[in-house]
Every structure is written in structure tokens, then in C-alpha cells.
Amino acid sequence: MSGARPKPARRQDRMETVLRLVAFLLALAALCAQADSPPDQTAQPVPQQDEAPALPVDADIDSMPPADEAQLPPPPPFAERADVQAFVDELALQHGFNPLVLTEQFRQVDLRPNILAIFDRPSTSRPYYQFRPDFVNPTRIRLGVEFWHSHAELIAAVAEQYGVEPEYLVSILGVETLWGRNTGKFRVMDVLSTAAFDYPRRADFFRSELREFLLLAREEGSDPFGFRGSYAGAMGMPQFMPSSYHRFAQDWDGDGHRDIRDNTGDILASVANYFVAHGWAKGQPVLLPAQVEGEAWQPLAADKFNLHYRISELAAFGVRSAVAVEGDPLAVLAPLESAPGVTDFWLGLGNFYALTRYNRSTLYAMAVHELALAIKAAWLDPSLLPPKPQPVVRKANKRKAKQAVKRKKVRRK
Ligand SMILES: [Ca+2]
């Protein structure tokens, strides 16, 4: 039985040997394959998450926000700002404004940050001989007389009723806006809101003006966004700031509105009322020529906007009037450089002081005074009226005109 199966046993041994050989070869092949295979991708080192990527070489570092600023939430819209909302609450409490309506109006504000640069511009002080020609010149004298002729009855009536010389009403409107030609194009609500909340140096002043402006608009029954004015919020032909508009503007024609933009009666009466409220006295001189001696007067020149001394008291400073004076009025010394190196000395009386309440500048008040005198002289004597300037014809226009004439002649032929 057992002797009968040797062949199969041998065949099995050979088979096992072959299988082992195959297994060995397979294992060897696997080992070789492993040694040649590329490294596993997942085993690559990864950059650390908090490692900053390198900046491109042309990165604009200055324009990048600092890391902590970049993390801040965006600021609230203007109307929702805490300072604006505090102002809204104040107006609601003190003047009965509807806070929702006010907030909605502040949402419509278009902030004008560019005006702040104008406020910060250093003021340049020019000598009077350079300042004067901008305001006291043939064009303004002629336009002033034209304005006077156009509204002669109205000007006379307002001057009479308020007790103000008409030439000063006419003159100041010319100095301010060229009789309404330059009244300003800014929306007053925009510029006042910008200055009130984004100009800390004068925030108190502009918040007060904004309050007066909103009260004025409510009293007039007008949309605050309908008022236009200068970059500082001065309005109409007389350029009243809102507080002056609110306190001094007049309704001359009795239509229930104080319209200082288009209504000439309201405009003239408002200016006259402003003058009188600041001490204008009809028939009194504005300025007197003065004489000075020594150096004691110099401190007075620095304090030029107040009436501290009577003329008799100014003698102690070496200042006296060059002409006889009735009574002993209060006066302020006004030195003005009328030509390079030439200083004229004047005594400004109460009416001069009233002009400086309109604009706190000796140069300004002197220009209003001189323009008033020149307009009055030309109004009374038309021979003094400066001629209308001839329109300037440029050479190019002359050439074109000649060519047009030639073409016409050719067509006729
Ligand atoms: Ca009116």
C-alpha cells in the first residue's frame, strides 16, 4: 500500500519546493519594489499654521492696516454714532424734536471732510493796501449803484425804519456776496454736521450752530437739506451763520418767512436789524482820523475789536483825534497800512465796532466803510460812476470773426 505511492510523494516535494521558491522570489521582488518607491506624500512636513507667509517683495507695507486695527469692527454709520445720538437726545429733550426724525435726517447727511482742511489753513494777514482792491474797486462800485437803483424804494424804507445809513446796507452785501452772486453751494446740513462732529477744535461752536440751524429750519417749516451756503454754513446774500439768521433775520414783507436768499426786503431788514442790535447809531461817524505819539499806543493795536476806552482816555496812550469830536465817545484805535511802509491811524467809533461784529477784522470793516462811501458818492453823482468795462476780445476770437466775414463775402459772390 505504502510502496504503491512513491511517485506522488516525490511530486508533492517538488511542488512544495517550487512554491517556496516562488514565495521567496515574490518576497524579494516586494522588498526591491519598496526600496525604489517614492516617499509617501503624506509624510511631508507641513508649514505651521501660525507661521506667516513671506511678503511679496513689492508689498505696500504702509497701506496695510496694523494687525490689531484689522481686527476692529467697522465704525458705526454717522447717524448711529454715540456722539450724534447724544446730540439727538439733547435736542429731543430740550427742544422737543422727534429723535427718530432727526436720526433719519442725520442718515441723509453727506459728510464733507474736505472743508476741515479749509478751516485749518493758516490765516494770512495782508496789509490793507493789498486787501482793499479786492473789495473797493470800480466793478463793485458800479454793481453797488446798480443794486441801489434796482431796489431804491425798498432800501430807503428799510434804512428809514431801522435807522441805518442805506450805503452801509448796500456795501456790506457787496463785500459779502457781490449782491447775491456768491452765496455758497454747500448743503448747510452737511457742512455743519461735519464740523460739529469731526472737527474737535471747534465742535462746541459748530454744534451750537447746528442746533440753531435745526431750530431755524423747523420754525421756517423748511427741509434742512434745502439750505445752501458757504463751507462754514453761512447763508444767503448777507451770509448769516445759523445763530445770526435765527436771532436777527427779519420778515420785512410779512409773508411768514425770513428769506435771506431771495427776498430783498427780508435781506435788507435782516442786515439793518443786525447792525442796530450791535449798536449802530444813525448819523454818527464810523471813523475819525487819528494822530499818535510815542510807542504807548502799540498794545492798543493788538486789541482792536473792543471798545474799552473813551477818546479822552486814549490820550494817555498818545492817541488823539485829528478832528473835533462831539462828546467823548468810546473808540478803538485802527492802524491800517495804506501803502508799503505807510500806516494811517483811525479811531473806530460805535458804528465801526458794529461792522466788526459782522466780521471780526479791521480790514473788513474798513473795506465796507470805504465801499459804502464810494457807492454813495457815485449814487449821488453819476459822473463818478466807473464806466462799464469793455468785454475783452481775445486775438483768436478776432481772427475767427474776420474769417467768418470773409466766408460770408465769398458766399455772396
Ligand atoms: Ca418774508
TrEMBL record:
The keyword Signal applies. Residues 1-35 form the signal peptide. One of its GO terms (molecular function) is peptidoglycan lytic transglycosylase activity. The active site is at E176. Residues 395-413 have a biased composition (Basic residues). It comes from the Bacteria. Residues 81-372 form the Transglycosylase SLT domain. Pfam families: SLT_2. This is Membrane-bound lytic murein transglycosylase B. The keyword Signal applies. One of its GO terms (biological process) is peptidoglycan catabolic process. Keywords: Signal. CDD domains: Slt35-like (cd13399). Residues 56-77, 386-413 are annotated as: Disordered. It comes from Chitinimonas taiwanensis DSM 18899.
